[in-house]
Amino acid sequence: MAEHDHLSKLKDAPIPPPDGEAKRLALAAAMAAFEKGAAETQGSAAPQRLSHASSPTEGKRKMRQTFYFNRALAASIAALMIGAPAAFMLSRNYAPGGGSISNPVGPISPAAEVAVAPRMEAPAAIQPAPAPSASVAGEERAKTAGALGGRRDGLVAPPPPRLAGRDGAAQRLSRSIQPAKPVAVMNAEGVRPPMSVDTNVAPESEFRDRFESKETNPVKLAATDPVSTFSIDVDAASYAFARRALNAGRLPPKDSVRVEEFVNYFPYDYPKPESAQTPFKPTITVTPSPWNAGNRLVHVAIQGYALQSAERPRANLVFLIDVSGSMSPQDRLPLVKNALRMLVDELKPEDTVAVVTYASGSGVALEPTKVADKAKILGAIDALGAGGSTAGAQGIQDAYRLAESNFDRSAVNRVILATDGDFNVGVTDQRELKGLIERKREKGVFLSILGVGQGNYNDALMQALAQNGNGAAVYVDNLNEARKALVEEASSTLFPIAKDVKIQVEWNPARVSEYRLIGYETRALRREDFNNDKVDAGDVGSGHRVTAIYEITQVGAEKKLVDDLRYGKKTPAPVSAQGAESELGFLKLRYKLPKEEASRLITQPIAESPSIESIARASQDVRFSVAVAAFAQLLKGAPYLGDYSYDDVIALAQSAKGDDPFGYRAEFVNLARLAKSARP
Question: What PROSITE patterns does the record point to (predicted)?
């Protein structure tokens, strides 16, 4: 109770008048601090708000550090502002034993600066905002004094103390904070510009690979449309491009998948022809379809004659090499150079090689040189470098001029174009380029394509140029593929055994109700083109083989895709007959020998028997090629496979790997596994 009475007395006690001397000393200390601060640079030494960073993660980290530091600083200042006056009042009114302090405030010493933890170091790439000049700072202080009713001498109250810098010197907290820079300036449409990206790697969404779009071959009725005609195709670029995509975890574009190029990529041990005068031997196998019960597959295998070394003509080659800027990545010009070195090693001493390059313009890097002087040829290849835009058409014209200047009627005269297909300067119209190449083909100079790269690969143009130049289009995605195309299959790539090769199959409506050709959409010909020797078709190189697969529905089958017409002529029921009536169809193959202009004909009936009753009883080559055809159709999204899956493809291919000296079939099985989890 005594303590309560004592507190009541203190509460009711009169407030002592202010001490004039103490007030004077406090004001003097404040003015001294102001004069010292006014002579120093105004502004904030704290780091600016982060406006950009090398990556989103780095930016977030630095912004978070700045945010946490500023919050801790604000909490510390708030604690000082609240705690210091409270402690002062307690020390003024209460003695250590609870007694009152009656003495007036003593002399005030100049304010001592409080040591504060040094501020966080600003990022090296971001500098503090520049301080205003002394004259500008003085004008700003004078304006502020007038606006706030400052002292008569025009001085304003001193700013709060700044934090200590890295050197330990006291810094003072500025009353004006520099405004944060915006993260990104918006454009006129109110949209922030995208972050900068590494220009050496094109984002996947910006890939500009171009492929010709073709609808999958439809099912046709043998009663109304019994004849199927197409040009032979020995290219394999589509498979190599798909392999690159699948190894990167992506499904290839559907338009890039050409079933026949998948099937024809692989070597098969088909029965061989006996002479170069009849350079083809067809072998036909009829087997049940693994994906449509009741349907059958007609497997047409054609093996080309393999030239012996003594039969091989001399080669007059011009390497036309794209050295534009787009060819600089390792999978383009450096890969091409390695591939051409391999090819040179396969040539004979009497063969000749020339090198033409093109970028913004074109030039001759090597005049026609005998392979006997191999060091000179390899030196010219090694000296190639990339840079500039792509004047491809100009380079093609220069290469043809060089080939014609060294033309040898008894030799193979061929231009080999190595490019990513990105023609962007000069004659880029596809029709004009095709016309030029057709005219040169008629003079005996052929064109082959060695394609590389992805992101801007113009497959549609490369295919058109190769087809019109009587050459193959090869896509090289790695050094192993370069070795396959230019070493293991060098003769097939360079030396033709026949040109303008066409296939025509006539189906017997008495035995076949429906049929469809699997693949060859880009090689379709009209029925009358087969006998017209003026119509260009595909060429076949030494030792090459070609596979074509038809799926047929026989007459009387329970399940058909096309119903019989109600009012039309009914399909006849199958009957036992001899001769032509017992055949499923009739195969015709037309070709020209390399130095001839008149075509020759090979024919063979497609017999219903002997017919294999199970796909498991077919040869390894037939089973594997059927598995590859199914795989390509799955990638392309063909609507004719029912429930057949990648697992079914893998099982069929595994059972047919056989002798696989180069590992091509094992690699295929692995690609089928990758396709199961690849992203679109």
Answer: VWFA (PS50234)
Q: Are residues 479 and 504 in the same domain?
A: no
pLDDT at 431: 79
Tally of structural domains, the chain: 2
Q: Which residue has the tokens 């945010």?
A: 67
State pLDDT tens for residues 498-512.
999 999 999 999 999
Work out the angle between the directed axes of helices 459-468 and 237-247 (0-180°, nearest 10): 160
* β-strand partners of 89: none
336 and 474 together in one domain: yes
Q: Which residue has the tokens 């079933």?
A: 259
Q: Are 318 and 356 in contact (CB under 8 A)?
A: yes
Query: Domain of 367?
Result: 309-494
- Residue 668 makes CB contacts below 8 A (sequence gap 6+) with 266, 628, 631, 653
- On whether both 329 and 476 belong to a single domain, the answer is yes
| 224-271 pLDDT per residue, tens | 999 999 999 889 999 999 999 999 999 999 999 999 999 999 999 999
Give Cα separations from 451 to 51, 104, 331, 353, 482 (angstroms).
44, 97, 11, 19, 10
The Cα angle at residue 273 between residues 267 and 278, in degrees rounded to 5: 125
Q: Find where tokens 């379709």 sit.
A: 524
Q: Residue 527: in which H helix or E strand, if any?
A: none
In a domain, 247, yes or no: yes
pLDDT tier at 110, thresholds 50, 70, 90: very low
Which position has the higher pLDDT, 570 or 450?
450
Q: Label residue 573 left, alpha or beta by phi (over 0 means left) and psi (-120 to 50 means alpha).
A: beta
DSSP secondary structure code for residue 107 in this structure: P
- Beta-bridge partners for 366: 355
DSSP string computed for 596-633: -SS-EEEEEEEES-S--S-GGGS-HHHHHHHHHHHHHH
Q: Phi, psi at residue 626, to the nearest 5°?
A: -65, -40
User: Same domain for 445 and 470?
Assistant: yes
CB 562 within 8 A of CB 219: yes
C-beta pairs of 659-668 under 8 Å, 24+ apart in sequence:
662/484, 662/488, 664/265, 664/266, 664/267, 665/266, 665/624, 667/243, 668/266, 668/628, 668/631
Query: What CATH number is attached to the domain comprising 318?
Result: 3.40.50.410
CA 394/CA 359 separation, integer angstroms? 9
Cα(560)–Cα(510) distance, integer angstroms:
15
Enter the tokens of residue 62: 């630095």
Cα–Cα nearest to 507, from 643, 608, 624, 411: 608
pLDDT at residue 407 greater than cutoff 80: yes
Identify whether 535 is part of a domain. Answer: yes
Whether residue 363 is found in the same domain as residue 468: yes
Q: Give domain status of residue 672, yes or no.
A: no
Strand partners, 605: 586
